[in-house]
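User: Could you go from structure to sequence for me? I need the amino acid at each position, not a summary. Structure tokens:
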């Protein structure tokens, strides 16, 4: 591996950069490519996103919101029952802030029956029909990926992303053990 570091003046900085490169090469070997609707327009290279890959989580924990009635959401498909049950489950959805930028909102799931979930009022920003949803459980969560490229193709956006692990930075800087 050839690592070129411009402006590095200390051995410590060079050593941290080399350790980061080695850990990244060893641990960040999973990439994804997918297409999405206009929500992809807001993504930029470097953004960290959550992806619910059914084959890795062994559950379908993501999809689209069909309709919203107050705190009751109808999802496009019934979420599968997780090992350990629904205690502590959260649901995330996107919304547009005052600058029309997409943001992620998280709320606790109070009840679930079929493809209908009821959330608590802690959210503050109402979910929108047709937007994506993502359910996370204490023992099953989505994987983090860093966006590499965003390309507009016809009326869709093609996203390429690489696995992201924030604990690599602590391992390099503070010798913290990796999870």
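Assistant: Here is the amino acid at each position, in order:
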């Amino acid at each position: 591996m050839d690592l070129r570091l411009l402006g590095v003046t200390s051995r410590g900085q060079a050593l941290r950069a080399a350790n980061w490169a080695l850990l990244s090469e060893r641990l960040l070997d999973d990439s994804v490519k997918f297409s999405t609707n206009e929500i992809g327009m807001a993504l930029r290279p470097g953004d960290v996103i959550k992806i619910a890959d059914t084959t890795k989580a062994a559950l379908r924990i993501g999809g689209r919101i069909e309709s919203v009635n107050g705190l009751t959401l109808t999802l496009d498909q019934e979420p599968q029952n997780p090992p350990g049950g629904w205690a502590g489950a959260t649901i995330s959805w996107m919304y547009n802030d005052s600058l029309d930028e997409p943001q992620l909102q998280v709320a606790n799931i109070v009840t679930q029956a079929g493809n209908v979930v009821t959330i608590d009022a802690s959210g503050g920003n109402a979910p929108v029909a047709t937007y994506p949803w993502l359910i996370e459980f204490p023992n099953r969560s989505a994987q983090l990926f860093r966006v590499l490229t965003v390309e507009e193709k016809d009326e869709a956006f093609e996203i390429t992303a690489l696995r992201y692990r924030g604990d690599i930075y602590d391992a390099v800087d503070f010798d913290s053990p990796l999870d």
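One structural detail worth keeping in mind: Strands lie at 31-36, 48-51, 62-69, 72-75, 90-96, 102-113, 116-119, 132-136, 143-153, 156-163.
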